[in-house]
## 1
Amino acid sequence: MIDEVVDARAVRIDGAAAWEVLHDAMKITVAKGKQLSHFHPRKDAKNEILKQVMGPSGNLRAPTLRVGDEFVVGFHPDFYTQWLQGK
């Protein structure tokens, strides 16, 4: 069930706002092309996470999905299929 949808073209989420949302996550997976990176905000550096999740416009990259206490930033269809089947 989708609780909330935010249109990234209408609502800008800058670095400070992105960190406010992401800092309590148990895990953040960032997809860039076929590459996947995994971060744990309680262990990994804030600057490194923000460097990966922010787009060139200074906005949180789209799509960004939150399921429970995990986030996926970026698009990777094979990972989405595998990740969502485990939820």
Note: The chain has one domain: 15-85.
## 2
Amino acid sequence: MQRVIPLLIGAFLLAPPAISAQTQWEQQVLAQIRAAGQLFSVDGYEIRGDGHTGTLDNADSEDFSVMLESGVTYAFLGVCDEDCSDVDLSINDEYGELIDSDYQDDDVPVVEVTPQSTGRYTIHVYMADCTAEPCYYAVGTFASVAPANNEWEVQVEAQINTAGSLFSDEGYTQRREPYTGSLGQAGSHDFNVRLERGISYALLAVCDADCSDIDLMISDDKGVEVDSDYEDDDLPIVEVRPKRSGTYRVHVYMANCSNEPCYYGVGSFGKDQ
């Protein structure tokens, strides 16, 4: 989804005025969220809930948690009242790892995430510029209503599940839902995985019928390569035995894709050491 900040500014100017003096600022920010919903719907999103509201003094911040579903793309929009000219947002996963942030100098930040597993995520709100404390803010949640899977994603997920039955013969079990995506020829993508000490992991990548070569590499939290598989095939496997629990980085490289984009999946399998 393209960020729609320039359009939102115009929509907010048309937001209906508050009708209750007691809660006028809260109604003002919620009206902005509703106006934004009409714009997000153009990109296939629908609003979820009424929006999270609160107040913050200048340079203060607040966290709140949200439950997100695997495979659904979410966008979170922050807005604030007329006494605020800059509010910022970031989102972290359940392990505290930063997923996305928007610290631009504006009052309509947007962060996005497509969870690989269902769970709780943390939204961080920072009031960067408030001239009359406290300033009211709201955060709206928008979810993609497009189908979570297409036929190619289903294809690569089926390959991962088939591989799971083979890994089980070696004492491995699938540790999380497959990570799926699409890449053009020579394209690459990185994502984070949480690995636990005391478990041996094998990560397997697969790709669709238009892909004949895909590669994998995994590095630790300091960026040091742990293992890689750049062989000329479409079933790369990397392995790691973490000395300590932490976040590792998986790098996917689409070496040969005859009909772009090519869909891929990465499965994570583990067994006790």
Note: The chain has two domains: 5-144, 151-272.
## 3
Amino acid sequence: MPLLSCRDLRLGYENHVILDNLTFHVCAGDYLCVVGENGSGKTTLMRAILGLQRPLGGAVVFGDGLMPNEIGYLPQQTAIQRDFPATVWEIVLSGCQSRLGRRPFYGAAHRSLAEENLRRMGMEEYRKRCYRELSGGQQQRVLLARALCAAKKLLLLDEPVSGLDPHVTGEMYALIDRLHREGMTVIMISHDIMEAMKRATHILHLGRDVFFGPANEYRRSAAGRRFLTLEGGEEA
């Protein structure tokens, strides 16, 4: 059974429809990259998966025991968020909030999980540092550690390398690749179609042409040929 299914999904705001009749699924162990033109509904789709936006039609269905509060999410950062005056530890521990249930305070298990994910991201020595004092790449590692505190099976990433220099971008992709190899299912919005093609098991292309399927079939599709030519510099 798929971990996540979107069935005849219709998304938008009031009378403006952004996506219509969108159907796809994600199975455990997939690495799905969501690509497409600006304004095609990529972030809106993630918000619907997270339950932050109600669909105008269709449904988002979870399977394989996945609960909506067990999804880790790394959103795009705003300038205000980059200047957030909290410690690295406070931010990472806040990722355990969905695990609290009716408990009012974090327990030993939550703190242990936060410590583990700080180590996984190589950020344990920065735990007392103020988040806004970190570099862009360090901030993304902190936010990824926070997302991992919530994620049990599924990780959603919205442009996780946006604004990073090439070296730090490569490090971030390597971290995500490692998490996928370790068994995490990944859905990642990406503007970098060439990197998406290298890493993804599946591609979801949104826009004028819609495609969902294995990454190796995307290159031969109408959507893939056109978009790879426009964005990747390849010949159709």
Note: The chain has a mean pLDDT of 91.
